[in-house]
Amino acid sequence: MSAAAAPASGSATSASASAAGSGGLRLEIWDAGAARIAHTRQVTSGERFTLRHVHSVTHRPVKETFSVTADGIAMEELWFDTFGANLPAGPERIGDVTTTFLVEDGGYRVLHHGRLMPTVPLLAGRPHVNHELFFADGVRLRLLDLVAPSTSVELRVAAG
Questions:
Q1: Taking 80 as the threshold, does the pLDDT of residue 23 lie above it?
Q2: Are 160 and 19 within 8 A, CB to CB?
């Protein structure tokens, strides 16, 4: 499931809200099936990271870029090169944000303008989907190195 299409849940809101006062933030990968934190990483407000995976229907790459805030995770943009299930075909209104849909560089770029999501829920895909998180410092996290295939996970920000 694409994070852009997934509904946001509020389970990390109170922890995220308290992070603003502590000065430190961490990004957590919550394993909902085992009710545990599968991974944690220190982050800073404004830090960006990218979730990359192979679309389960089109078998083409998808990139979702997020930024960290004290209140959660902000969706910045989505990139893909062919239309498929749960991928937009034009601008969308999501809550109070209208996305910008661009055709450029052999693909489709959808700007989400910092749309706040308290958490990013998704299913860790099977090996061919290969969900991976990429950070500016060069760190790469493969979700299947942390949880089993088809596990429900949430990316969330908490006080660090």
A1: no
A2: yes
Cβ neighbors of 124 (< 8 A, separation 6 or more) are 131, 143, 144, 146, 147, 148, 149, 150, 151, 152, 153
Which alpha helices (DSSP H) does the chain contain, by range?
A: 13-22
pLDDT at 11 exceeding the cut of 90: no
Residue 115 confidence (pLDDT): 96
For residues 54 and 117, give the distance between their C-alpha atoms in angstroms, rounded to a whole number: 22
Q: How far is CA 24 from the centre of its chain?
A: 20
Query: Average pLDDT, whole number, for the chain?
Result: 88
* All residues at 6 or more sequence positions from 93 whose CB lies less than 8 Å from its CB, including other chains: 99
Q: pTM of the prediction?
A: 0.84
- Residue 47 CB contacts under 8 Å (≥ 6 apart), including other chains: 67, 68, 135, 136
Residue listed under structure tokens 């209104």: 93
Tokens 């192979």 belong to residue:
54
The residue-averaged pLDDT of 115-122 equals: 96
Nearest of 79, 84, 77, 81 to residue 106 by alpha carbon: 81
Is the four-CA dihedral 98, 63, 143, 45 of positive or negative sign?
A: negative
Mean pLDDT of 8-25: 47
